[in-house]
Amino acid sequence: MGQKILIVEDEPDMVLGLKDNFEFEGYEVVTASDGLAGLERARAMKPDLLVLDIMLPKLSGLEVCKILRGEGYDKPILMLTARGQEIDKVVGLELGADDYVTKPFSVRELLARVRAILRRAEGTKKRLQRYRFADVELDFEAYKATRGGAPLDLSPREFELLRYLIERKGETVSRDKLLEDVWGYESYPSTRTVDTHIAKLRSKIGDSGQEPKHILTIHGFGYKFIDP
To answer: So what CATH class is 130-225?
Structure first.
């Protein structure tokens, strides 16, 4: 499923339009029509992005933003403001909003903003620095690894592949996603490359054989790292 977006907006037509467009783009969307419900949903679902109108019944968007930031919610918040709410924009940014869009806006503009914000957020996410499983210890910062205390020779690409799968522990990651994020578009190899790398990686970490315990193959789709 795509990234989760919570839209807190009290104009039904706008909610419907935004929900349709976001879902079409592959996002998972939840909506709320007043500040209080928005606050409760944000706490419960911890969305990847919050689209928050400033003018809302029960609790204003500014208050929702302030409360969530005070509770340590660190995902991006995009404010929707009406024309002429200049002062609110400034206050919103001071309270921890990441960006704002002024009404009336085009849905395409909003989607472009959302994509940019989510990309930025992905980039600043704390990368995993160390991890251990079975008898393998990994230090992703220094690109050092040991297995059973002995040095383990992994290439930088193998480190990145492992880090990527471990950061998404329990999630199935498609071969295409691995190619896109670990290899990057510019060197576009084939999905066979992923399989070859995974096979090499498995034998290095002692996970080959009939039944791999850590890097599982999800047939016809991709791979999943688990730490039983």
So the answer is: mainly alpha
